[in-house]
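Hi everyone, sorry if this is the wrong subforum. Our group has a chain we'd like a structural model of before ordering constructs, and none of us has done structure prediction before. Sequence below.
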Amino acid sequence: MANLSVNYCGVPFKNPLVLASATPGWDGEAMCLAAEAGIGGVIPKTIGPKQDWAAHPRNGRMRIIRNSGKPIGQVNLELFTTMTRDAWLHKELAIAKQGGAVMQVSILAMPEPEDTARLVEEMQATGLVDLFELNVSCPMPASTVGMHIGKSPELTYAQVKAAKAVSKVPFTVKMTPNVTSLVDVASAAKEAGADGITISNSIRSFAGVDIDTGKPYLCGYGGYTGPAIRPIIMRHVSEVARNVDIPISAVGGVSSYRDVIEYIMLGATTVQLCTSIMWNGYQQITKIISDLNQWMDEKGYKSLDEIRGIALPYITTVEKLAELPPKFAHINPDICTNCGLCQKSCMYRAISEKNRKRWADTAQCDGCGICAQICPFQAISLV
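Answer:
Right subforum, don't worry. Here is the predicted structure as tokens:
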């Protein structure tokens, strides 16, 4: 069996999976359930709003987004923890610690950095924090916290600088994807002393409208999570990994062991889960770990260090790709069933029927590759 252990910011994890700061870790018992399922680390819902707790709607605050009936994402109107700070300090963190997973505690960046620093001191005084995750990224607040801090390199720097100065354990920062580029913000966090960064929080979104009633499904702007956001987060992870030398914890749309591997190949050290657990239960953790072990054994890998970042050297610009020799669609007549799906999808009118078989005209083909992916019988390749 492969060694799935990783070292993130100097803290050893038995495997790279971490329970993201969200509903599945709303209290200590929930975090224990994740630990019992085998997860490497757990993060509670973000602790520390000034009012000590944050109410969220209890009349429907989540909307699963489907495409042809299949769930592809989820919009939520969550804010921070609904438990008091005292409850976490004097009860819930201790319960969570009993699970045995690494305790990566999420705290809110307050409007004033000195208040954030005081919260760090208060939480670490429990002796239960293995490392911190500073939330500068929640997409819902309409005030001066969450992504309103995380979109600014300057504000992020000030928060990290103040908090890191008093932290006695490794200190990480959870980024917002609601920016043009995370590189500048990640660079500011590193310069301020951050030991690692989480990429990233949910994407600010809207759940849609019921066309029969004309009313929104959720009457507010929320955070979008789930499989549909993974390509966006992979872009942020890879850009930061290529430009900022700092450990990364990736989160966004992880549903299987393949998603975990992709993030690690793009430079991540740990990978966080949320929505897939909400849809499938904590047993999803056990399945992903089992599948990850099996894949590692089949490929002959002994450690995740062997694959971390291996995809990064192959990433280039569209302009550079355009300089490479073109490829064209080739349809294998022995496999083609003449279903016609490829012809419908070819916007360059390069595919037609000949002698009751489809064929591709090289002079017309633009090498986009859609036909090869549309074909249900893998009869098409780009050569």
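For your construct planning: The CA atoms of residues 236 and 368 lie 24 Å apart. The two ends are 38 Å apart (CA to CA).
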